[in-house]
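Entry 14. Ran structure prediction on the chain below.
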Amino acid sequence: MSQNCQSPEDIERELLDKTNAYLRCRSGGMDASPPLVEAWQRFYCTYELRVRKVLEKWHLSDADREDCFQDVWVEVLVHLGHFQHDPGRGRLATWLTTLARNKAADSIRHRYRHPSRPLGHDGVALLDTGPGPESDCERHWAQARVRGALTQFADQVPESSFRVLYLRWIEGREVAEIAAALGLTPEQVRLRAHRMKRRFRDLFERLMAKESFSSANDCLK
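Output, structure tokens:
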């Protein structure tokens, strides 16, 4: 059947498959084939507007709305491969709409419970290659990588040491501020921050090497 004769469900399923293949390539640091790049651009341009329209209906500040938008795309990059295309139970657009609504609601709840905002969030400054779907994908994927690695790392180190890592290298807090908050000396903060950063970097490199190996075949399609 030619693409002009395909049903919307078939087109969506084909686009989803190619988009997932593209993301597997990018997660492994591999160059995707032109059809996969085109599929990602179509996917991003199609659903970016939908996500933004959903978020515009909520009473969010511009900064919170942009944070929610970024969080939605991080979730997409992490969980899109597990999305089961089933028109009888809901399409991809429905899943993204629900995801955007949930992120907006979470943002409002967080605003009421925590009036003061943190200095930054996971992976925001890791990559900034300019505008466009591909660079957006790189930035979102970098955030998703960091968040996934941080989740694993938190289970492997003492809680106090993880908090030092997070406050120092993710939120960008000053040594003296961290020391006061955690009841440590500045020298203890510096030592733990250095040690945890080195251990986290080792874990992150292992995870990236594993992703690269598993995605190499996908990029040849």
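Residues 95 and 126 are 28 Å apart (CA to CA). Will compare against last week's run tomorrow.
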